[in-house]
Amino acid sequence: MNAQPKEQHVTQSTTRSTPIVRIRGIEQHFGPVHALGPVDLTIERGEFVSIVGPSGCGKSTLLEIIGALQDPVRGSVEVDGTPLDGPRRRTAIVFQESATLPWRTVVDNVAFALEVRGVGRKERREHARELVEMVGLGGFENHYPAQLSGGMRQRVAMARAMSTDPDLILADEPFGALDEQTRMLMAEELLRVVESIGCGVLFITHSIQEAVLLSDRVLVMGRRPGTFIDEVPIELPRPRAHASLSEPSATASQERIWAQIRSEAEVAMVGTRSTR
Ligand SMILES: Nc1ncnc2c1ncn2[C@@H]1O[C@H](COP(=O)(O)OP(=O)(O)OP(=O)(O)O)[C@@H](O)[C@H]1O
User: Fold this and answer.
1) How far does residue 274's CA lie from ligand 1's centre (Å)?
2) How far is the CA of 221 from the centre of ligand 1 (A)?
3) ipTM of this predicted structure
4) 3-class state of residue 22 by DSSP
5) CA of 20 to the centre of ligand 1 (A)
6) Which among 185, 179, 182, 160 is positioned nearest to 171, based on CA atoms?
7) Model pLDDT for residues 152-191, shown as the tens digit of each residue
8) Atom of ligand 1 nearest to the CA of 64
9) How many CA atoms lie within 13 Å of 61's alpha carbon, on the beta-carbon side?
10) Pocket of ligand 1, candidates 57, 70, 175, 261: which has the most ligand atoms within 8 Å of its Cβ, to mutate?
11) What is the DSSP-derived secondary structure letter of residue 146?
């Protein structure tokens, strides 16, 4: 299958408001390398969309374009109904190794984005404390990043991302550096937090399980230049937890996604061997 995903309004029929993200015909090239596209994508408000696909297919490139960290060579990006012309205050971006500031305590790391925006000290610390509590770090407010585990530091990054009242979270392999158990716990935590604030999420992961557990829709990207080759609606009831993955529909979704990725990765590997 090599079609762009249909303009689906399947899982998001509950809202008729402007989508939080609408991109059309996005393409990216780096010199002679055609890295991405063309791709179309719509994310509704409050919708959780994951992208999975073989290494190097253009996932991070797409996320960075939506986050205004790079400009595409072709196509249009609208966020919240407005053409994107630079970084937005209400778009939060979380990376695999989101940096924490080592000389600041947990609460001051979380308050940092508010400080930059000129929010008063008392107000920003109060809000930061609530967020620290929300991501399960209550009691660690005054610890420094070096005193925390990798998973706890990633929770700090998550709390900081939430501090600016995001309507869109762009997450690029946010749990990729964590061990499997921490990763699953963090995924459950993220679900809880996102459900409580109701923002749209674009989530890139190499873990099919994680994508199925978290998402309303999983988009499968084919090998470079990446385009969407499948769109898998995840119809598991919410709230979800790790156990949801053993439900028959979740297993079927994982198998469908894996079959697509495997065939793309195999073709990519053969291509690499034959061009050596
Ligand atoms: N700044 C750049 N300059 C040149 N090539 C780039 C640049 N950024 C990305 N690329 C190339 O574009 C392609 C897509 O990269 P991208 O990082 O988006 O892939 P990805 O799907 O996120 O990969 P992974 O899953 O391994 O993180 C790759 O071939 C990469 O080498």
Assistant:
1) 21
2) 13
3) 0.97
4) strand
5) 25
6) 160
7) 898 898 888 888 889 999 999 988 888 888 888 888 888 8
8) 18
9) 25
10) 57
11) G
Give me the DSSP letters along 217-267: EEEEE-SSSB-EEEEEE----SS--GGGGGSHHHHHHHHHHHHHHHHHHHH
pLDDT score, position 40: 97
Give per-residue pLDDT as tens, 43-101: 999 999 999 999 999 999 999 999 999 999 999 999 999 999 999 989 999 888 777 88
Long-range contacts of 244-249 (CB under 8 A, 24+ apart): 244/213, 245/209, 245/212, 245/213
In the 3-class helix/strand/coil scheme, how is 190-228 assigned residue by residue?
HHHHHHHHCCEEEEECCCHHHHHHHCCEEEEECCCCECE
- In this structure, the residues whose C-beta lies within 6 A of any atom of ligand 1 are 30, 33, 35, 53, 55-61, 224
Q: What is the predicted pLDDT for the residue at 16?
A: 57
For 170, the enclosing helix (H) or strand (E) is strand 168-172
Quick one: DSSP state of residue 54? S
pLDDT value of position 5: 42
Q: What 3-state class would DSSP assign to 132?
A: helix
Instruction: Map out the domains of the chain with their CATH numbers.
Output: 1-90+169-175+198-276 (3.40.50.300), 92-165 (no CATH)
